[in-house]
Amino acid sequence: MDVVDRVAAWWDGFELWLAGLSFVPQAALVFAVMVPLCGAVAWLLDRVIATVFTVIGRGESEPPARTTEDC
Prior knowledge:
The chain is mainly alpha-helical. It has a domain at 22-55. The protein is built from 2 helices and no strands.
């Protein structure tokens, strides 16, 4: 059995276990894993894109001036 088959078998078992849980533990587990994971991916993409823009000369030159005037 090669590595891909082992991962697929593990994933199938995990998926069956997760689907067998009731809604509250399913939701709690998904939120506990997905919220930090999605936050980390978003932060990483932000850093990569900012670095790429800086390298190609399109980075932010200065932050916009803050004004306290009411419109």
